[in-house]
Specification:
single chain, alpha+beta, 3-stranded antiparallel sheet, globular, disordered N terminus
Length: 124
């Protein structure tokens, strides 16, 4: 009996080229022993963009990865503030950091539409 296909199993292969075209350095992630782990080295992409050839190699080696990460900071011009908690915690974060320019306010789960997420990121 064939193994069922998980629709988000090849998410890296589907999202990485579009994210790279927007100037980001997409990193493949997968769950390993119950923990989310980057597949391959990624530290260099905190200080320089990913080259086209590096993306091609990652697509070949890790295209089937279900998760995509983007290094944040000065190079990508992305800052993430992750607030897990009550409304009071969110209010406190807003007081400390101010109102953010929001690219997406939703958690990107396998249920969400990847094309819509790429569109939102390009509009940022």
């Amino acid at each position: 009996m064939p193994t069922p296909t998980v629709p988000w199993a090849d998410r890296y292969r589907r999202l990485a080229p579009s994210l790279h075209a927007l100037g980001y350095s997409p990193i493949p992630f997968a769950e390993v022993n119950g923990k989310k782990k980057p597949r391959g080295r990624w530290g260099d992409f905190q200080t320089r963009p990913m080259w086209d050839r590096e993306l091609e190699r990652r697509l070949d080696a890790f295209g089937a990865c279900p998760m995509v990460a983007i290094p944040t900071g000065k190079l990508s011009n992305l800052t993430v503030v992750d607030v897990d908690g009550s409304a009071d915690d969110i209010d406190f974060a807003l007081e400390q950091f101010g109102e953010p320019e929001v690219m997406s306010t939703r958690v990107n789960t396998p249920k969400n539409d990847d094309a819509e997420l790429i569109k939102e990121m390009g509009a940022a």
